[in-house]
Design goal:
3 domains, 7 strands, alpha/beta, Conserved hypothetical protein from pyrococcus furiosus pfu- 392566-001, ParB domain, five-stranded mixed sheet, 10 helices, 15% strand
Amino acid sequence: MKFYTVDVKNITCDIPASNFSDDALNSLADMIIESGGIIRPLVLKTTGLETYAVIDGYFEYYAAVRAREKKPRQCEMVNAFVISPKSEDEIFKQVAAFRGLDFDERSEIKTSIKTNHSESISKNNEFNLLEKQINDLRSELAQERQKLYETLKLIESQIPKQITPLDAFNSLSLLELTFRLRSAGFTDKKAIQVAEGVEKERKNKNFESLKDVLTRVKIASGKKQIKGISSDKMVDIVDSWTRLLFI
């Protein structure tokens, strides 16, 4: 059994949606939209190439369908455990056990505790085992969600900030500004000098235009202070940094 994200439209269910309260489905659908997904994955079996049928989680499935109807792009995928054909019988037995415990089995266990001590111990052990399996599945799901979160944060950190060249001069850190100047063709040494000159000037006052940057940013050349960025170089900067906006 493996954890996947599956397109809702590729899933079928042999239990009709009419078995569930429309208000309850709408309520859970809204929760799914707000939280970004269902916290209890569906259990599916493969029926074809990228097609699946629900084994467990019928209510969650129809709520996910309802969420997709409300927010098609946001709720296109759903979390699910997909079982392999060779373990299908075992999973069916486990699902049947869970369903029994969801309804009458728990009251039967309580009754048996009063009437038959040995039987109650057996049923309690069975219940504890099933509870452990549920907790293990929840833990596995939490780990997968954490891995996904860390991957997304890593990808996000590698995407250049989408800001205009003027905003870059006014807001980027010294390190980020140096990196962008290097990407526009500056040598390491000059990129550092220009970035330091930019930082020094903007502490007094933000730049009002790229022309303002050209006028105010100076770097040392021997004992003299010269323009840090030429007009031609500013053209290269604008061209290079503008392309980053569309990556």
